[in-house]
Design a protein that fits this description.
With 123 residues, the protein is mainly α. It is 59% helix and 0% strand. It is built from six helices and no strands. It has helices spanning 9-19, 34-45, 55-68, 74-90, 100-105, 108-119. Helix 3 runs antiparallel to helix 4 (74-90) and helix 3 (55-68) runs parallel beside helix 6 (108-119). The radius of gyration is 13 Å and the shape is globular. The protein starts with 8 loop residues before the first helix and ends with a helix.
Length: 123
């Protein structure tokens, strides 16, 4: 699934500019499920700025946007959120541990955007 790569960086930046106007969501009550854990991790990573877009970031952002889109079925919405959470947790996994902090310093705004989208009901 590489649908995310068909959109230009300008699409992702415009979406982030719009979504980042909202306040960060509160910490979820259930940190043990994958979506709650991903939301908490993205909130933590959102402390830094930066909006570098590589393929793993674009995929996670695309899936987070898709998870917040209107959906007829609550079950399908839950599946979308879990896919977005898994993609968010994959960001930076291929970066060596010694370089990971610098990597995230350049992607804090993206993390904040994903946190807001995982918390949202609809875009």
């Amino acid at each position: 699934m590489r649908h995310f790569s068909q959109y230009p960086d300008a699409f992702y930046r415009a979406a982030m500019d719009h979504i980042l106007q909202e306040p960060l969501p509160p910490l979820p009550e259930d940190l043990w499920d994958e979506t709650g854990y991903a939301l908490a991790r993205m909130r933590m990573r959102a402390r830094k700025g930066g909006a570098q877009l590589d393929d793993t970031v674009k995929e996670a952002l695309f899936l987070a946007l898709w998870s917040a889109a209107r959906c007829a079925s609550p079950k399908a919405k839950d599946v979308r959120r879990r896919l977005a959470a898994k993609a968010a947790l994959r960001i930076g996994k291929n970066v060596p541990l010694k370089d990971r902090q610098a990597y995230w310093n350049d992607r804090g705004s993206v993390a904040g955007c994903i946190a807001r989208l995982l918390y949202r009901d609809e875009v």
